[in-house]
Amino acid sequence: MSESPRPTVHTNTALLDPETGSRAPGSWLLVEDGVIAARGTGEVPAAVTDRAETVDLGGATLMPGLIDAHVHVTALSADLGAVVDHSPSYVAAYAANSLSDMLGRGFTTVRDVGGADWGLAQAVDEGLVDGPRLIFGGKALSQTGGHGDFRPRGRHGTDQHGCCPGAGLVCDGPVEFRRAAREQLRTGAHHVKVMLSGGVASPTDRIDSTQSSEDELRAVVEEAEAANRYVTGHAYTARAVNRGLRLGVRCIEHGNLIDQSSVELFVEHGAFLVPTLVTYRELARQGARNGLPAQSQTKVDTVLHRGLEALRMAHEGGVRLVFGTDLLGGMQTHQSAEFAIRGQVQPAADVVRSATSEAAALLGLEGEVGTLRTGARADLIVVDGNPLADLSLLAEPERGVRAVLRAGVVRRERS
Questions:
Q1: What are phi and psi of 14, to 5 degrees?
Q2: Are residues 290 and 330 in contact, defined by beta-carbon separation less than 8 angstroms?
Q3: How far apart, in Å, are the Cα atoms of 121 and each of 56, 276, 322, 341, 370?
Q4: Residue 135: phi, psi to the nearest 5?
Q5: Is the residue at 331 inside a domain?
Q6: Owning domain of residue 32
Q7: In Å, how far are 83, 114, 175 from 130, measured between CA atoms?
Q8: How far is CA 248 from CA 19, 109, 241, in A?
Q9: Start and end of every Amidohydrolase-related domain (predicted)?
């Protein structure tokens, strides 16, 4: 493969189209000016070969680059409260390394839902950081004592508004929530995240609590809609999920403890669900040695064993499912294992779609990424084998992913 600015036609390949769930051997795809210019099956037209550099992929699969819609690239530890005690420049350096590793696994776009900001996104866009396209929401909004309040019980004072590189912003009352939402949107945030329930990594709340009052949530939804953006909500229980969906939250993160009433509301509102199953497996295995506080470790079991059943229920009920991982600190190396976990419940084609075209729809990038449509950005991966028959090729990228392209340029290649 070449990084030449000339048009490049990839031949002798099987094109995997996630939108149709099909794979077409004996195909070709033309990349020009960083976008997909044409594609087809059979002999490449002479008009294409005459002006384009030819790259023979030897029968490998060519498919859209992957999208992880729930990452925390600044989370250098599972102790999220500890991040604010680090230098912002140190955290930025950590995030750059984390993003580079994600690109190497085949993820060409990621959505950060707490921590990353416009500066990191700009650094990626300008090539200062070699990573996937970064869709960011800034800081997640939390009530005092909520999932975004990472202070231990004995620490007082709520000043988290400065330059500190934390994932959450504490605010109380609809005026503060509205102001905080406007502040994230002012920086160019693609979404606003709000805490709807307790969580694992926060030290002082309960998993089964509901958080943020209805007036607070309405204020955030109103501001996001005014800016043509959307609200995503952290929530586990059916009570918290259903409340958020009724109030206009467009996407739910996690949702391990939903029930059938939640499924019906997802479908009714056309909302998205982003399960993050691999993070609970890894928190149970190695959370303590990656900084998860003791009071948080006891919460893991509450959500760990219900996650697959919630995924099954949502899949069978027709909920729009998107790929996400939510891994923290050193556990981020297990990002791709989410494919194997989901494959226990969903057909491979649906899992692939959740990490490509369906994720793109959530991010407002439908037709631009996660697809092989003409005119889409040429964010692509070359896979040795057929992921529709063997998801382990994506779950183990060191074995299955041969090359990663962003805007048609090879960014990673395995010999």
A1: -105, 110
A2: yes
A3: 33, 23, 21, 29, 19
A4: -95, 120
A5: yes
A6: 8-64+371-413
A7: 22, 20, 39
A8: 27, 26, 11
A9: 61-396
What is the reported pTM? 0.92
201 within 8 A of 80, measured Cβ to Cβ: yes
Count of structural domains, the chain: 2
Question: 19-25 — which CB contacts under 8 Å span 24+ positions?
Answer: 19/353, 19/357, 19/371, 19/373, 21/349, 21/350, 21/352, 21/353, 21/388, 23/61, 23/386, 23/388, 25/59
Same domain, 140 and 57: no
Asked if residue 390 and residue 404 are part of one domain, the reply reads: yes
Asked whether residue 86 is assigned to any structural domain, the reply reads: yes
pLDDT by residue, tens only, the chain of 415 residues = 444 468 999 999 999 999 999 999 999 999 999 999 999 999 999 999 999 999 999 999 999 999 999 999 999 887 777 777 888 999 999 999 999 999 999 999 999 999 999 999 999 999 999 999 999 999 999 988 767 676 655 554 554 444 556 778 899 999 999 999 999 999 999 999 999 987 765 556 666 778 899 999 999 999 999 999 999 999 999 999 999 999 999 999 999 999 999 999 999 999 999 999 999 888 888 766 766 666 666 666 667 778 999 999 999 999 999 999 999 989 999 999 999 999 999 999 999 999 999 999 999 999 999 999 999 999 999 999 999 999 999 999 999 999 999 999 999 998 7
* 198 and 145 Cβ atoms separated by less than 8 Å: no
Other beta carbons within 10 Å of 261: 12
Specify whether the CB–CB gap between 211 and 220 falls below 8 A.
no
**Same domain (yes/no): 247, 260:** yes
CATH of the domain at 25: 2.30.40.10
391's tokens: 């998801």
- Judge if 257 and 183 occupy the same domain: yes
